[in-house]
Design goal:
With about 110 residues, the chain is of the alpha+beta class. The chain has 3 helices and 3 strands. The longest helix is centred in the first third of the chain and has 8 residues, at about 15-20. The model is unreliable at about 10-20 (pLDDT under 50). It binds zinc ion (2 copies). One zinc ion binds near residues 49 and 74. One zinc ion binds next to loops.
């Protein structure tokens, strides 16, 4: 008895849509380096909104691995659709190998 789906030629729409979207997940933002307020200079501005970081009493600034700094809330919006630094276009993803869990065998050996 096989219960193979009849619609084998249907691709994975969710997956395709996901890979077409060049944005980064929210979890990526949590991995960014937070810039300590004391290291922010008076004339450092966010390149996205051009507002000095220190205009905010509690600036939430992140630094990408290329060294560019942005308001977290500004870069968050950018990363919804891009995965590169808006200043230098360097890829910002930390290339981690995709872990495919393979420790769950399909077969059931309860009755062996
Ligand atoms: Zn900004
Ligand atoms: Zn950059």
């Amino acid at each position: 008895m096989n219960f193979l789906p009849a619609d084998e030629d249907v691709a994975w729409p969710a997956f395709v849509a996901d890979s077409a979207n060049r944005g980064l997940p929210q979890s990526f933002l949590d991995t960014l380096d937070r810039v300590n307020k004391t290291t922010i200079k008076k004339d450092d501005v966010c390149p996205i909104c051009t507002t000095p970081f220190l205009e905010d009493q509690y600036p939430l600034v992140v630094r990408l691995k290329c060294g560019h700094k942005f308001d977290l809330e500004c870069i968050e919006i950018w990363f919804k659709e891009h995965s590169t630094c808006p200043m230098c276009r360097q890829g910002v993803e930390k290339r981690k190998p995709i872990v495919v869990p393979d420790d769950e065998p399909e077969y059931d050996d309860t009755y062996s």
